[in-house]
Amino acid sequence: VKEKGIESVAHTLTLGYEHCSVETVLKKLLPAGADIPSSFETVGHIAHLNLRDEHKGYEGIIGQVLLDKNPKLKTIVNKTETLCHTVFRVFQMDVIAGLEDLNAEVCESGCRFKFDYGKVYWNSRLQGEHDRLLQKLSKDDILCDMFAGVGPFAVPAAKKGLTVYGNDLNPDSYKAMQANAKLNKVEGRLHCSNMDAREFVAKLAAEGTRFTQVFMNLPASAAEFCDVFPSVFRDYPHPMPTIHCYCFSKDADPAADAVKQVEQHMGMSIAEEKSLSVHDVRDVAPKKRMMCVSFAMPKPGPAGEGERPAKRAKAAGGE
Predict the structure, then answer these.
(1) Tens digit of pLDDT for each residue in 94-103?
(2) What is the C-alpha separation between 78 and 52, in angstroms, rounded?
């Protein structure tokens, strides 16, 4: 510094709101010690928050800061109820900042999807899981998607060249799936239905429709729907398909527990099947895992043999 004759000069630097991060701003605005809600799910122009009781009264402030700091966001929503209060698994949510516009457009797995986020189920965290299974499927596969939602797995599969039979009980999901098939120019390969999942797969089998893969991404209750398989596939005129059933587990051994769930509801053993594999998808809460049980469907025996009754329920809002 001395050799170059450099001198220090006093300078005042004023940092304003535009220079501060979301965390810095909310630390100033929220009560001392309050949790800073810095993480959220993005669905197109919508940010989805899960605020806590300690944030009550500050929802609007939190939402406005997120809008200011994320120019691509236009609408901020906060979940007000748990997911499974309705048969269609639709979030109850409030718009806390921005536009009252829940019509989202999302690009995922090389496809475009449009839907009303207030009426259907969507989870962007599952894109990696969709892509994992898509990589395992060939164009010769024929897919039966029992809980297809708006088509986040069914549409990319059809775009890959597969014939897909997609179903969802929620009429809004069904309509969005149809629209997304047309949007991605796969309406000729994606055949959409709006039925109870058991009735859907039973109808396909009764009509002699061939399918090689069954996708069941409704982890809260998909295993319960395995009870339909013994009767559906007893007289099935084609080779048995591969089942991909998703489950939640809080067990110390989630893989074994997921297999047990499938076996209990299907009333058949799959533990010894050579094709059996269990994939750990992700954690959804502390000590709660989402698992995918994949197996070739065993050929059912005569009616009633080894089968156990299971509680039957309707469900919708797959994916």
Answers:
(1) 999 999 999 9
(2) 10
Burial class (CB in 10 A: 0-12, 13-18, 19+), 34: middle
Q: 102: how many CB neighbours lie within 10 A of its CB? A: 19
Please report, as a single letter, which amino acid is at residue 252. Answer: A
| Residue whose structure tokens are 């398989």 | 229
- 104, 172 Cβ separation under 8 angstroms: no
Average model confidence (pLDDT) for the chain? 92
Q: Write down the pTM of the prediction.
A: 0.87
Distance of CA 201 to the CA centre of its chain: 21
- pLDDT at residue 310, rounded to an integer: 41
Q: Which is nearest to 180 in space by CA: 214, 197, 157?
A: 157
d(CA 128, CA 38): 23
- Indicate the burial class of 20 (C-beta count within 10 angstroms; 0-12, 13-18, 19 or more): middle
The region of weakest confidence among 19-23, 36-40, 231-235, 275-279 is 36-40
DSSP β-ladder status, 163-167 and 242-249: unpaired
